[in-house]
Design a protein that fits this description.
Elements (H helix, E strand, L loop, with lengths): L1 H23 L2 H15 L8 H21 L3 H25 L16 H20 L10 H24 L15 H4 L10 E10 L2 E6 L13 E11 L21 H5 L4 E7 L7 H10 L3 E5 L2 H8 L7 E4 L2 H7 L4 E7 L2 E7 L8
Parallel strand pairs: 4-5, 5-6
Antiparallel strand pairs: 1-2, 1-3, 4-7, 7-8
Helix pairs in contact: 1-3, 1-5, 2-3, 3-6, 4-5
């Protein structure tokens, strides 16, 4: 039994550490995945707190992984791990059986898992953690308390320090579709021979205090905007495909609403794209500096009005393009992310503050 418990501790601990480190490379990715769940459940009020939830959850995964490996405070950590894995199993089960969430983001974008793979992984971990929980009194704490506390302190500093760094800059390892060397037009294509997902648009309204869900082709006969209050809409998966484009919803619109995506992607020569996910008084001066120094420069943003208010007449020297907020979130993990582009290929990318071509 001792050997089984030791092996189980190492498996659980290593998996939690790997899961935490992969997600710590991109805590915004987990934050966006949380928002996806909250949108489906109608918990919109929690969207502003998802980044804090993400940072804390990632840090706990790493710290708990280290704690279970060394056998530190197992009476406490066995409870915490059991509660966490039950929560994870619920999320992955919901993603799998509801069809409303395609992936749970358990290992981030660097180790993509399907909903079914994530659910089976959590079932496996749940069994191991139950074994540790039942036998928690048999797991002896480390003899060298100083070494154990030092190791846990390193885990705390690493988990929070890594996340603080990548949030200020960009992920150390880029696992997103918009990574260096990628040809964007190719990433926008469905792989040859692939079967796309089949979805239907579902709406959720409230009437007489009750939530009512229906599809776009089956509105209630008594439907009216006066009696039905709109809550949300989502694409409900009815048939799982076997592939989809890596880059979706990437459309560049001019101020007049014209789609200029193809024209821009086919342009020859070096271009600079500045994705502006958000802008404020502290970031506006750096954006103005980029406008003055980089030619040709395109500013791509989902917050067009905020950019116009912050930059004013400076925008006359560049092309301002509007893009879907989700696409920009994927392309720009930093609020101001600069790309060097040549005929649709990503040559280089930086957080704007780190770009060596800005001085």
């Amino acid at each position: 039994m001792k050997t089984i418990l030791t092996l189980s501790r190492y498996i659980v601990g290593i998996l939690f550490i790997i899961s935490g480190l992969v997600k710590a490379n991109d805590p915004l990715g987990l934050s966006y995945k949380m928002q996806e769940f909250f949108e489906v459940w109608g918990w919109h009020a929690l969207n502003d707190y998802t980044l804090a939830f993400s940072v804390l959850m990632i840090a706990f995964e790493i710290i708990a992984g280290v704690a279970v490996i060394i056998g530190w405070q197992m009476k406490l950590f066995s409870w915490l791990l059991l509660l966490l894995i039950i929560f994870f199993t619920f999320l992955t089960g919901y993603a799998l059986f509801s069809g409303k969430i395609k992936t749970c983001g358990c290992f981030g974008d660097c180790i993509p898992l399907t909903a079914a793979q994530s659910f089976m992984k959590d079932i496996f971990l749940l069994l191991l953690i139950l074994l540790l929980f039942v036998n928690r009194a048999k797991i002896r704490p480390p003899k060298n308390t100083f070494a154990a506390i030092s190791l846990l302190l390193v885990a705390v500093l690493l988990s929070f320090g890594l996340q603080a760094y990548v949030l200020k800059h960009i992920p150390l390892v880029d696992c997103l579709p918009y990574k260096k060397g990628v040809l964007i037009p190719e990433q926008m294509k469905v792989p040859p021979g692939a079967i796309p997902d089949s979805t239907v648009i579902s709406f959720v309204y409230k009437k007489d205090g009750k939530e009512i869900e229906f599809t776009a082709d089956a509105f209630p006969e008594d439907f009216s905007e006066d009696s039905y209050q709109f809550l949300r809409r989502y694409d409900k998966l009815v048939r799982q495909g076997n592939a989809e484009p890596a880059i979706k919803d990437f459309v560049l619109l001019t101020a007049s609403g014209n789609d200029s995506t193809t024209q821009i992607l086919q342009s020859t020569g070096t271009q600079y794209w500045l994705f502006v996910r958000s802008i404020d008084e502290s970031s506006a001066p750096m954006v103005k500096k980029a406008i003055a120094q980089l030619k040709p420069l395109l500013i791509i943003t989902p917050v067009e009005e905020a950019v116009r208010q912050s930059l004013g007449e400076t925008l006359n020297a560049v092309t301002l393009l509007k893009c879907d907020a989700v696409a920009v979130k994927t392309a720009a993990r930093n609020p101001q992310t600069l790309y060097e582009i040549n005929q649709g290929r990503i040559i280089q990318k930086w957080a704007l503050r780190d770009a060596p071509i800005i001085h």
